[in-house]
Specification:
Layout: H1 5-29, E1 36-44, E2 55-59, H2 70-83, E3 87-90, H3 103-110, E4 119-121, H4 131-138, E5 142-143, E6 147-153, E7 156-163, H5 170-177, E8 184-188, H6 194-200, E9 204-207, E10 233-237, E11 240-244, E12 262-270
Parallel strand pairs: 1-12, 2-3, 3-4, 4-5, 7-8, 8-9, 9-11
Antiparallel strand pairs: 2-12, 6-7, 10-11
Length: 271
Amino acid sequence: MAMTRRAVLKGALAVGTGAIAGAGTYGYAYERHELAVTRAAVPVVGLPGALAGLRVGLITDVHRSLFVSHEDVARAVDTLMREKPDLIVLGGDYVTYGDRDYVGPAAEALAPLAAPHGVYGILGNHDDDHDMPAALNRNGVQMLKDARTRLTIRNETIDLVGIRYWTKRQVDIAALTRDAAPMTILLAHDPRRLTEATALGVPLVLSGHTHGGQVVLPLVGAIAAQKFPVVAGIGRRDRTTLFVSRGVGTIYVPVRINCPPEVALLTLQPA
């Protein structure tokens, strides 16, 4: 007997619902813990030859919370340390909704991070402006709250400019980059700061915030991150390169689908 159109639609709906439920269960129980290392060669316009091959480690969006355990963060730290980066950057959102109960635990989990040229951090939209940076400072992270610091690596100068999530106006970022070294890296939690960085001629931006979309659906993609210029990985606008990390933790729902957590090891190369 031929199937009716209604029966076909009901069957398709049942299959689709089952697939979504299965993916959600897997994303909760397994994929959100399946940490990956993303090793990327990042092209930088005007990179001095001596800095070619410089390895920058990036950990972001830890979101230490009830659903992101100490073990999850410690695994990310251990994984990055095994890569032996020259320099480490923390991209913000160490807790969720500024939860003070996890400020100390987040900083403690990140405390083992160390690199020859230092560990530097910025604030995300979930971080408070006082307790979180103070806790990270106590654990060896130099926090850049709308600030710039100068490094000398291989006899070349690099300026790191770190901005808070809430610092968005180009005029405010311009004040931080004024008279900066040609090799300047903007640390900005929100990848939408690519617009300002491009206008100011900053060659490299490192960001997080998107979680890579966190839930990436077949054919549809990362619905939650469509407003960003780059959801994950490398992007380029004019002479500015942007790298966006998928991050370590989760937000809203403790699930990742087709979007595993990551730590990133970025090897700088001349564009």
